[in-house]
Permease
Amino acid sequence: MFQWLENLITHLVEGVFKIPVESKLGGSLHFFFYDTIKILILLSLMIFVISWLRSWFQPQKTKEMLTHVKGPKANLAASLLGIVTPFCSCSSVPIFIGFVEAGIPLGITFSFLITSPIVNEAAFAILLAAFGWKVAFTYVTAGVIIGVSSGLIIGRLNPEAHLEPKAFSGEAFNKIRPDMTQKERIAYAADQTKSIVKRIWIYLLIGIGVGALIHGWAPEDILARYAGDDKPLSVLIAVLCGVPLYANALGTIPIAEALIGKGVGLGTALAFMMAVTALSFPEMVLLRKVMKPRLIAVFIATATIGIILVGLLFNLLF
């Protein structure tokens, strides 16, 4: 699909920069330029298409849809909704708060909150390009399972008692967009594409840059020794390392790709990626505005256990 780009970047590195792609520097440069252009192309296309589709679903309609679905089906609906929403945890939190203010049960809203940053259409497209259909679909399925199961568990713990009073102010959810014409929807999708790319490009470049350094310079034997797929604690360590960081799924995929190329287990790399996107420290700061510490701790614990189990499963299957 991107062979033309592969050839172009190879010509750039070897023909223009005069650096062999087999060298450490050449390999890192090739990784950086190739992944940057490929991801930006896929990202822009997917954001535009999904933003156009999203323009048909106003927040009030979403609330009505989730209100009419009961039981585990509601958690599944919320989790699937999270797939086609913003690209990082901190942009998902305001929507989550809006659902809380709208009176949607908290267990259901947690299914949305957990799935949204882990799985999105752009991450799926890039995982598909990097690892193939089997890994991409399994990752999406795992993200949905984590969101649904965590929401069901949290929903049984009377979580509403651990919300701050201001969580029910209703301010964030009352902004309902009017119906738009087809021309307005296309303009909206274009604006969303420009806005989101502008907002996340720096995290994307940082992630690709780190991935390029790992790809070209990280010693394979050390990574394989301490984080190989046969190391039982590697998934736990990856999750603990990912929590303090902040990035969206797109920024972490190049890092995961580079780690896997160096011998790190697929489940370990994806567990790190999930932890960064779903359990970041900035997200916890935002959630503290509406949640008491005990509920945040429950959220972190359930999501962490789910991510670790998925990481171990990936290491066994792939």
Summary: Residues 4 and 10 are 10 Å apart (CA to CA). Confidence is low (pLDDT under 50) at residues 170-176.
